[in-house]
Amino acid sequence: MTKSIDEELPEEESYFERIELFVDPGQRPLRIDKFITDKVANASRNKVQQRITDGEVKVNGLSVKSNYKTKAGDLISFVMERSRKDPDVIPEPIPLDIRYEDEHLLVVCKPAGMVVHPAHGNWTGTLVNGLAYYFKSLPELPGNSGRPGLVHRIDKDTSGLLVVAKSEKAMTHLAKQFFDHSIQRSYLALVWGEMKEEEGTIDVPIGRGLKDRKVMQVYPDGETGKSAVTHWKLIQRLRYVSLIECTLETGRTHQIRVHMKYLGHPLFNDPVYGGDKIRKGTQFSKYKTFVQNCFELLPRQALHAKSLGFIHPVSGKEMFFDSEIPADMESVIQKWKNYVQYQK
User: Fold this and answer.
1) Do domains 2-81 and 98-179 have the same CATH topology?
2) Residue 127: which of 172, 95, 169 has the closest Cα?
3) What is the pLDDT of residue 14?
4) pLDDT of residue 1
5) Longest CA pairwise span in the chain (Å)
6) Is 270 a catalytic residue?
7) Are 257 and 305 in contact (CB under 8 A)?
């Protein structure tokens, strides 16, 4: 019997799935690589053997060798690329802000307004279109058609760092780190309202909205949704808004945006979760004009994926990358600092 457990990668539906195979009582002993190849549609013998060599295939929680013979009642678990049928990616000469690159991976800083991968309504002009042109011959990895190299993503109007795999080995290793929640990610966010505490943790499940599947919502009672944990720390109070740093244990779609709305502090100028209206402040026309000017300077949610840390999939070294605050977000933060100073 085969059981698939979906795991959601950061800000996106999973590009991978965790597979569990139960060996039925009547199953005759069989080499584990052949057993998996027979059971899983997109699993080649070479691919499975590589997973086993890397210690990523577990039997009853323990790593085994390729010649292990399955026994009735065994529970086999591993991660495999999800099968997809996406159109071919059109290579486009799109400028890429590459912060690091070696033969196994690269780290890129995505600008706000750029979609990460082609999808309905955005078949061109995406980060992946630019990557396809930059790499020329970057292979379409099995199960990741239309999204070469991607193991995670960030929203169109969120800026910041992304890691891109250049080989199947790198992709699998990085994907496992996301599954294990061992990736270090910090975001800088400007939110409405003055945070009363210096730091806190939001541990509330998130799932698709019941009325609109494109909008996420919290499920405090845990009746549905997936586990979502966000840690936040106050950086600076700016009278009617606050600058905070968020770190993620999980990576659900719109996680920070949804969790901050739940706290009553939606992201500044977030049109989906209520931050594109004046939530705190005075009724004076000068204040309204000031906020409107800020909205025009930052025509998106005030969220930036500032840092990213992971273990290199081949060398095993700890890698850490940090990025500067983008100009549009920095200008609005500075305007709020000036506003607070002027009000003293």
Assistant:
1) no
2) 95
3) 46
4) 42
5) 79
6) no
7) no
In sequence order, which residues have a C-beta less than 8 Å from that of residue 303 and are 6 or more positions away?
155, 157, 158, 159, 187, 188, 189, 256, 257, 267, 270
Which one of the listed residues 33, 155, 157, 328 is annotated catalytic?
A: 155
Class of domain 98-179: alpha beta
88: exposed, middle or buried (C-beta count within 10 Å: 0-12, 13-18, 19+)? Answer: exposed
pLDDT digits (tens, 9 = 90+) for 31-55: 999 888 888 866 778 888 888 988 8
DSSP 63-117: E--TTPBP-TT-EEEEEEEPP---PPP--------EEEE-SSEEEEEEPTT--SS
**Alpha helix positions (H), the chain:** 32-39, 45-53, 127-135, 168-179, 255-262, 285-297, 327-343
**How much is the pLDDT for 148?**
66
Per-residue model confidence (pLDDT) at position 162: 96
Cα angle 107, 310, 95 (rounded to 5 degrees) comes to: 5
Where the chain has pLDDT below 70, the residues are: 1-17, 41-42, 81-87, 120-121, 137-148, 344
According to DSSP, residue 27 is labeled P
CB atoms within 10 A of CB 290: 18
Find out if CATH 3.10.290.10 is the number for domain 2-81.
Answer: yes
2-8 contacts at long range (C-beta below 8 A, 24 or more positions apart)? 2/39, 2/40, 7/179, 8/226, 8/250, 8/251, 8/252, 8/253
Q: How many CA atoms lie within 13 A of 9 on its CB side?
A: 25
Which of 270, 269, 262 minimizes the C-alpha distance to 296?
269
| Chain centroid offset of residue 339 CA | 34
Domain 184-343: CATH architecture, name and number where available: 2-Layer Sandwich (3.30)
Q: What's the predicted TM-score (pTM) here? A: 0.75
How many Å apart are CA 115 and CA 189, to the nearest integer? Answer: 20
